[in-house]
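re: that complex we talked abt at group meeting.

here r the seqs, copy pasted straight from the sheet so there may be weird spacing, ignore it
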Amino acid sequence: MLLNLITPELGLIVWQLIVFLLLLFVLGKFAWKPIMNALKEREKSIEEALASAEKAKAEMAKISADNEKLLQQARAEKDEILKKAQQTARELVDEAKESAKKEADKIISEARNLIESERKAFVADMKKEVAKLSLQVAERILRKELSNDENQKILAEKLINEISAN
Amino acid sequence: MRKLANFLFVFFLLFPFFTFAQQEEKEFNAGDLILHHIADSHEWHFATIGKTHLTIPLPIILYTDKGLDIFMSSEFHHAEKREITNEKGEKEHQLVLKRPNGNTYIMSHERIFLEGGGTLYDFSITKNVASLLLSAILLIVVFLSVAKSYKKNTGKAPKGLQSFLEPIIVFIRDDIAKPNIGEKYERFMPYLLTVFFFIWFNNLLGLMPGGANVTGNIAVTMTLALLTLIITLFSSNKYYWQHIFNTPGVPWWLKFLVPIMPIVEIIGIFTKPFSLMVRLFANITAGHIIILSLLSLIFLFKSYAVAPVSVAFAVVMNMLELFVAILQAYVFTLLSAMYFGGAVEEHHHEHHNEKHEVHQA
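got the structure back, here u go
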């Protein structure tokens, strides 16, 4: 009986072979194939989802980095523009001041020239007037003084003295 | 709940077929009881209540020179009983059955012979074959339903039975097939999965009360081991054979002048599946023997006091057997995968040898 235990029976071998091969065929075709395919597909889709998430993350990081860069650029540009504007304003003011000063100087010098020429003309007029008045005074005095000969003589001498003294 | 109801339905459907044969009391023999339980049988015996046997008769299919003879095993209940003394001087019980076709069959220790000798092939649906068919139906129902849930839950998380079995399927693929076979693992997956679940389910069915000892039967394990051998040989590449006949790293005179290495390697081709066959058979049978021995102690001592201890030990053993059931399925699958891996492995040896030689020099 113990020997029976380790002696394989032909009938059971045949049945086992038939049942197992049938099982292999049926399960292989209708169970393992769809199951393995479904598993593979799911793994693939998970992998893809993870990869795309990673990609999205990287893209987000890139976008935010880009944003930061843009912001910095904008800030730098703003500073530049402000600086330039300030400089331009300063230049403008300086220029205006300069030109105003120039204008003022010009006006002043013109005014001075005018005053000078006016004064000169006035002085010349005054001289003419004084000379005319002086001549009239001198004529009247002379007429009075020289009404006799004596006086004419004394004056001539005096004049001659004066001239000679000079 | 519905499954239990189904089971009960089937049970009561079969009930009329149960036979209630009477038998006189015999002296208790633990060895006979254990061997009877782990051996194959032509009928499915569940229990003996009092003197009544609760048995499902199974079809007996015999092929002799008179052609096929198919009848139910319950015919043997009406057979003539006789006791003979065999060559070894041991007493042996035999059942002698005369059939209408003229054949007289003798059943001794569950093996059927023709009276007076002659060729007889026994293709009966024995207890193991019936259990085999049941397990095949169970496997098909379970995995086809799992496959269906994959279709239904496409792109969704697994559910129910699917989520229980998926980690095991993935484990077989990622931790058994891929590392041991390599790139070509995919073509071996159907066999590895089938063999794993076949062994596991049958191991578990064998642990059920009244279950058959299918995976603890040498014919079953031999067939599985032979299939592994056949698949290994048919998928082998030239490097596999080169490794056998021209083993790298071995002095040339051990290969050609005194061909010890090729002989050892050729023996190795067959010892590998032989070890598969014996390992599974011995592990499962041993587990059954231990549990039955523990329970037999109660009857040997004829004392109720032994019962709690025996039962406690048997429960612990049963738990261990539940683990062994999946462990042996894993071991068989893993070793098969390793043999397949060896057969399809691409050539890497020369490189290693060069390194070794450099080290030795």
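couple things i noticed - Helices of chain A lie at 2-5, 10-145, 149-165. Residues 20-165 of chain A form one domain.
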